[in-house]
Amino acid sequence: MKIDLAVLELTCSRLCHDLISPIGAVNNGLELLEDEEDPALVAEARALAARSARRASILLQAYRCAIGNAGNQASFGFGEAIKLARDFLEGGKVSLSGVPAMSPSDLPGGWSKLLLIMVILMSETLPRGGDLHLSVQGEGPAARFMLVSEGAQIVFPEDHKVLLAGENGQATLDARNVLAYLTGTLAARLKLKIEATQPSPTRLEIRIA
After folding, report:
1. For 13-50, how does the pLDDT look when each residue is reduced to its tens digit (9 = 90+)?
2. Among 5, 50, 107, 175, which is most buried by a count of CB atoms within 10 Å?
3. Nearest C-alpha neighbor of 100 from the set 62, 129, 135
4. What's the whole-model pTM score?
């Protein structure tokens, strides 16, 4: 097994970056509880710690499946990927729409993992909020999906497009774009191609072909 230590380090940096804020907030809430006697402030500190602990738990569960081995398991299906995606977006400015009422059947291993990591990555293209619209076509190994970001502002760095396409030699990896690299690498492992197009400043389309 070949392991790229630099990619491992950057992935850990990305994970720690996302977790540091909610875990720090849990710590702040607990510190307030130690000395605070005002009932209103105690309640506020407890609520802060509870919200932040939930957020940290959601991030860990989502990344465990999106970039960890849990997402490769046969038991990790479409429904669980959608639930984790919605939890990940909870409380933020990005919503997920277009989820089919019936889950596609007989999906190949790794397909749902790719969907989850794509939702996480695409949510970052909407810094001012907006909608992520999912459309799914087909069943089994022929199943494909498309995600569309729509919002007042789309941020999609050129190196993300390159990395999603699997052209890894044309971009310098860092903690900011390592998720795009992992997504492109996962798609290649599944023998799928990711095509990104931006027809307007407020719309970005990502197709899995």
Report:
1. 999 999 999 999 999 888 888 877 788 888 888 898 99
2. 107
3. 135
4. 0.92
